[in-house]
Each structure stands twice: as C-alpha cells, then as structure tokens.
C-alpha cells in the first residue's frame, strides 16, 4: 500500500517535471501558482506566502474563540447570560488590531501593484496586444513597418499529427498558431487593448494580468528571466469562445529573436518554422504556422 502511494507520488512528480520541461502552463491537480519566470511573479509568489502568515493565524484564532464561546457559554454551563453590551478596551483592540494587520498587507500589495503597472524607463521593446472575439492580435513596434499578426487557437486537427513530446509542448486549448516571440532578459512594454468587447491579457508565469478594453490602452510590462514557451488565457468573459483564445509567448535568446524578427518581416510562417526548428529540435513534424491564414 505504502509502495503504491510512493509510486503514485513519483509518477505525479514525473508528470509535473516533464510538463514543466516543455512549457509553462497549468498542470493537472495544480492548486498553487505557476513557477515564476519574471521578477514580478517571484514577488507575487512571495506575497502569497506572506499573506498566509496572516490568514492562517487569524483563522485559527477566530476558530478558537468560537469554540471557547460554544463550550463555555452554552446554556448548560452558563444558564444566566451576561448582559454586557460595551467594553471600550476590547472595542479599541478589535479596531486597531485589524487596521495594523491591513496595513501590513496593503503596503506590500500596493507596492507590487505599482511595480506591475509601471514599465521601467526605456523598455527594450514594445508589443501591443489586441483582444478580438475570439483571438489575440499583436503588433511589434519595429522601424517603419510594424510587424502585426493574429494568433489563433491551434485546432485539434492541427495537433493530430504531433508527436507525444510535441503534444505536451503544444497543449490542447493553449497552443496557438503564431506565438508572441520575445528575447530573454529584455524589458518588454506591453500595451493591451481590445477591438470589440472587454478581454483580459493574462500570463500567469509572468505575473501579468490586465484588462483589454476597447478604446483604451492599458500598459504593463514583463522581463522574462528564462527561455521557454509560456501559456496564458483571456481572463475576462468575452463571449461564446472566451475559452478558446489562449496566449502563447515564446522567450528565446536575443540572436534567435533577431533572426525571427528579420525573417518575420517578409514571411511570418517561415520565420516561425525556422524558430521552432532551432528551439525545439527537429522533433516538430506538423506545420503549426501553416494555419495562420484564416
Ligand atoms: Cu475572453
């Protein structure tokens, strides 16, 4: 029985490890946050743990007080209830105590929010993401002719030809045809808007989540610390296909990014194919980029 439990645990660990090796995305039975790929997400993970240091003791204290009241002041033990209605000391304590606790939570929380929404001066590049019913489109601010493309969910038919490893890297309902490509270690300013209804751009591993509102340009940023393929989703209910407009960001070395960008100016499909061949090895068999035109 014990061995079986260990085997299950080991299998789970393999599963977690294997999927994290391919791409940053949610895993089955996951309850915690995704591992961080940016400094902001590191801070968010820290803040979550920090908050628990308040939440758990407070919850236990309230539970303890409730148990004391239930036991000590039940009718059997305390037939004549006290008629006390005020106690100034207690009222001061239960007002000032929570205020202090809230300050301890609010100050780092607002600091983090400010950091999230304030791109550092002189970002290395700017990408604009536009939410549409139901896909994302992206624009790169590069020279005279900005690069722009749509990014659509990779359909089941297009995934059918993928090998096992590729299926893990290009998961169902998360993989897209044209990924956002950015260089590793560079500050990317992200402008987010929408063309029709409100969407939201969310990339859990980056600690990015910002509304995409028609007629309004929201600004945030990220600096990915490691290369990889990252998945996020639209996070504002935007219509019937809200669940089918994922976000994929591929973080690559600067030289690969430069090569991709140069090639993408003339042929995005070929640029994507070349990039995948150089980052994924030759395992990739299906022409993911080919269904771009739709
Ligand atoms: Cu949506």
From TrEMBL:
Record localization: Cell membrane; Membrane
Naturally occurring in which organism (per UniProt): Sinorhizobium saheli
Keywords annotated in UniProt: Copper, Electron transport, Membrane, Metal-binding, Respiratory chain, Signal, Translocase, Transmembrane, Transmembrane helix, Transport
SUPFAM superfamilies cross-referenced by the UniProt entry: Cupredoxins, Cytochrome c oxidase subunit II-like, transmembrane region
InterPro entries: CcO_II, CcO_II-like_C, CcO_II_C, Copper_CuA, Cupredoxin, Cyt_c_oxidase_su2, Cyt_c_oxidase_su2_TM_dom, Cyt_c_oxidase_su2_TM_sf
Matches recorded under Gene3D superfamilies: 1.10.287.90, Cupredoxins - blue copper proteins
Example of a GO biological process term: ATP synthesis coupled electron transport
UniProt-listed CDD domains: CcO_II_C
Pfam family, one: COX2_TM
Reactions performed catalytically: 4 Fe(II)-[cytochrome c] + O2 + 8 H(+)(in) = 4 Fe(III)-[cytochrome c] + 2 H2O + 4 H(+)(out)
Record's protein name: Cytochrome c oxidase subunit 2
Family of the protein in this entry: Belongs to the cytochrome c oxidase subunit 2 family.
């Amino acid at each position: 029985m014990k061995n079986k439990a260990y085997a299950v645990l080991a299998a789970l660990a393999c599963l977690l490890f294997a999927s994290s090796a391919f791409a940053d995305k949610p895993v089955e039975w996951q309850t915690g946050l995704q591992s961080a790929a940016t400094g902001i997400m590191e801070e968010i993970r820290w803040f979550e743990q920090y908050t628990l240091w308040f939440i758990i003791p407070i919850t236990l204290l309230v539970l303890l007080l409730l148990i004391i009241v239930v036991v000590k002041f039940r009718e059997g033990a305390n037939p004549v209830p006290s008629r006390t209605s005020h106690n100034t000391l207690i009222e001061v304590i239960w007002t000032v105590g929570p205020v202090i606790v809230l300050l301890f939570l609010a100050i780092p929380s607002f600091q983090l929010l400010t950091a999230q929404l304030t791109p550092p001066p002189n970002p290395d590049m700017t990408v604009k993401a536009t939410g549409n019913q139901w896909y994302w489109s992206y624009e790169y601010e590069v020279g005279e002719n900005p690069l722009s493309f749509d990014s659509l969910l990779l359909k089941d038919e297009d995934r059918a030809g993928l090998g096992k490893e590729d299926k893990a890297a290009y998961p169902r309902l998360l993989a897209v045809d044209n990924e956002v490509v950015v260089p590793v270690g560079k500050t990317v300013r992200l402008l987010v808007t929408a063309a029709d209804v409100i969407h939201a751009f969310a990339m859990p591993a980056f600690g990015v989540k910002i509304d995409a509102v028609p007629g309004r340009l929201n600004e945030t940023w990220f600096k990915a610390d490691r290369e990889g393929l990252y998945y996020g989703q639209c996070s504002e209910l935007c219509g019937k296909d809200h669940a089918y407009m994922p976000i994929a960001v591929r973080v690559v070395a600067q030289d690969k990014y430069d090569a991709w960008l140069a090639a993408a100016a003339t042929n995005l499909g070929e640029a994507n194919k070349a990039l995948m061949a150089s980052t994924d090895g030759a395992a990739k068999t299906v022409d993911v980029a080919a269904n771009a035109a739709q």
